[in-house]
Structures are given as structure tokens and as C-alpha cells.
């Protein structure tokens, strides 16, 4: 039986294409993209460093596209033992119209999927702040 130390991890930073609408200047969009990219890079750096600290092999990739499609494509390519995805905790109204990446992956990924849901107090009141 595999242990955590026998497992190799693969982390992705995905450019989200699911923004409804926003009024902003071209400069605003540039700043948003830079800010989001930096946040994502810091997250990847944290997870990669943490894995190396505890002796777990990992890879980190930056991909663009629809997150659910990219994740399921990479699952087919990499053939992991399991997939771990985070849940933003969308409300029922948002789930109906937007759907969730974690639900899609649970249905379509060709491996077991573990969804990690954040605590209610960590969910922003306004989805725009997510």
C-alpha cells in the first residue's frame, strides 16, 4: 500500500475563464491579471516548498483554459492515484448557474477525487472577492 511519501504530487495554477462580467479599463485588467498570477505563484511556491520539506516529490505547472477541462485532461495524461481539489463553497444559486470545478472533476476525472471544502468563515461574503 502506498504511503504519502510514496506519492508524487502535481500542482496546477489555472487561469480562470469563468468571470461573468466586470467594468474595468485595460489597465485594470492588467493589474488584476498580475495580482492573480502573483497570488497563484505564491500558492504554488508554498505547496512545492512544503512538499520538499517533508520529502514528497511534486511538480507544479501553470496552465490556462477552463479549469475543469484542463484538470481532467491532465488527469488522463499524468494518471495520478487520486486528485485533490478545493471547493470555494458556492451557494446553491451560483452552483446551478455556474457549476463547480470540483463537482465536474468528481464526475469526469478518471481517478478517485477528494474535495476539500473551506470553512464557512473563510468564504468571502461577495463572490467577487473570492
Written overview of the protein:
The chain is an alpha/beta fold. The protein has one domain: HUPs (Rossmann fold, 3-Layer(aba) Sandwich), CATH 3.40.50. The protein contains four helices and four strands. The strands form two sheets. Strands 1-2 form a two-stranded parallel ribbon. The protein has a two-stranded parallel sheet with strand order 3-4. α2 packs parallel to α4. The longest helix is centred in the first third of the chain and has 29 residues. The protein is globular and about 50 Å long. 8% of the residues are buried. About 4% of the residues have low confidence.
SSE topology sketch:
Blueprint: E1 9-15, H1 26-54, E2 58-64, H2 67-78, E3 83-87, H3 92-98, H4 101-108, E4 113-117
Parallel strand pairs: 1-2, 3-4
Key terms:
130 residues; alpha/beta; Rossmann fold; two-stranded parallel sheet; 4 strands
Q: What's the tally of helices? A: 4
CATH topology: Rossmann fold
CATH architecture: 3-Layer(aba) Sandwich
Query: What's the count of strands?
Result: 4
CATH superfamily descriptor: HUPs
* The CATH C-level class name: Alpha Beta
Major sheet summary line: 2 strands, parallel
What's the order of the H and E elements? EHEHEHHE
Low-confidence stretches: 16-20
Our Rg estimate from Cα atoms comes to 16 Å
Secondary-structure-based class equals: alpha/beta
For the record, give the distance between the C-alpha atoms at the N and C termini, rounded to a whole number: 38 Å
Quaternary state of the chains: single chain
Shape: globular
How many domain modules? 1
* Average pLDDT number: 76
Protein name: UspA domain-containing protein
GO molecular function, one term: AMP binding
Keywords: Signal
